[in-house]
Write the structure tokens for this entry.
Amino acid sequence: MDKFLHPAKTIRCGAFEFDLKAFELRKNGLRLKLSEQPFQILAILLEKPGEIITRDELRERLWPGDTFVDFDHGLNNAVMRLREVLGDSSDHPRFIETLPRRGYRFIAAIEEIRPVAALQTGGTRQLDGSNNSEVTQIVASTVPIVREDPQPNTIGRRWLILQRISFLVAGLLVFAAASGIALHYVRGMESGKINPAHNMSLVVLPLENLTGDKEQDYFADGMTDDLTANLAKIRSLRVISRSTAMAYKGTRKPLSEIARELRVDAVVEGTVLRAGDRVRITAELVQVSTDHHLWADTYESPIGDVLALQNRVSSAIVDEIRINLSPEDKQRLAKTPSVSPEAYEDYLKGRYYWNRRSGEGFTRAIGYFEDATRKDPQYALAYAGLADCYGIIGATIYGTVPTSEAAPKAKAAAIRALEIDPSLAEAETSLATAKFNYDWDWAGASEGFKRAIELDPKYATAYQRYSLYSIAMGRFDESFEQIKHARDLDPLSISINSSFGWRLYLARQYDRSIAQLRGTLDMDPTYEWAHLILGQAFEQKGQYNLALAELQKAVELSHNTPLMVSALAHAYALSGTRSKLKNY
């Protein structure tokens, strides 16, 4: 802990109080959550209010040369979080001014507060003569120094102090009563006496990669995915899926706006720094309705212990939002499989390319997942990743691998994953997908999808795949219900939104399909499958010019995969422009 010049001081600035001894920040008497480094920066700035504190000085005070940290990113993020808590802005600062490439200074007017005992009056007299030293100490610690008159009138000064003490005691009594009511309410919630109106909901925003190396993005994205998956294990917690969260990667939207768009109560944000064989995660939990920073902390571990580190972060978040965990939730949250660091690295790269949802991406993902299973033959999630890829890469949608090759590999990988970990909804979904796509085993597919949803009711892909099975069976209403449920869980998923448009197309609701797919392409204009289905919907309506434009785009984006080329050729044939067919 850094040693500051005035460790016993409390400083007031408007509604804020900075207690440099207790390392606390309060606003209107209520404590705000602020992690260590932002508070250290605040304390250093308050040592010399109005003066520039250089970046070099902050580096020396906070991050010695041998400290494991990226200084520039660390300082920028710490100052950003400090400003968020203070409600400050770098463009129009009220508290902290940035001097570009030089440093920072605290520019607001401040008032120093000291205990009454330190004043020249010789102490504080009890109001009622009783031995109420505890209240007197609490009150005394908030009485400001009077600086204007070096020799004030003693009677007037005492009267001023007593008057302030009276107000503060009254405030304390009101606060105590309110605290009792609040405590009763919280205990009632924790004991089940009071039911919240809805389950707590949150989103884990993409963790920021502090290395500055874009090649390491897969690692930060993987940490985001795993933290999201860990929290999603809690049945009473609604967690927004990773693909929706990833839509906010790199954006600078206010947290309140993101929360409003996703209809969540809280936001988790943070950073990841990887150097050599060590990883550091800094995470913060913000209750958006009150802009209250509930919790923030930093965790560091060797790369080999990163899964345990993620569990520590998840447990801290769950503790802070005070969710009552069932025994099953506790068991799921405590589960930390042992994985070799090298296999985990390959697994993260595989998931990174899988999430691109393209034929080329699947091919690269398969290579990394296979490497992961070779390095750690007991790595269930790596086998599940293989099953995911093979489950669709040989199907009609992509068709870049012959079915005769993809089908047995998809089933073998899914079965192996379930042998290692029978609780994996991902593997159960992949096995059901293989039975549906390749074997036409309708009963087996249905049973598998239902089992996957039972294992993880918040796994959106299980509902997405089950909806395709349902519409193939002619159960349109059931299919729409399932795909809507998938979209509720993952509202900004390009894959799920495209699937919704496809279900509408299969139900011959072409206008609704077109509207849905256009909205999907507004989110990602490069998704070839959405262009394919949109083109086919226009074709069904006889709007061939629009159909050809969309299908040509699908062919370009997919690099001439058979499905896209055949769809374009079919549209040319129907439109009467047969001269174009010779190119396909």
Observations:
- The chain has 23 helices and 14 strands.
- The chain has five domains: 10-111, 114-190, 200-334, 337-453, 492-584.
- Residues 1-8, 116-163, 165-170, 172-197 have pLDDT under 50 and may be disordered.
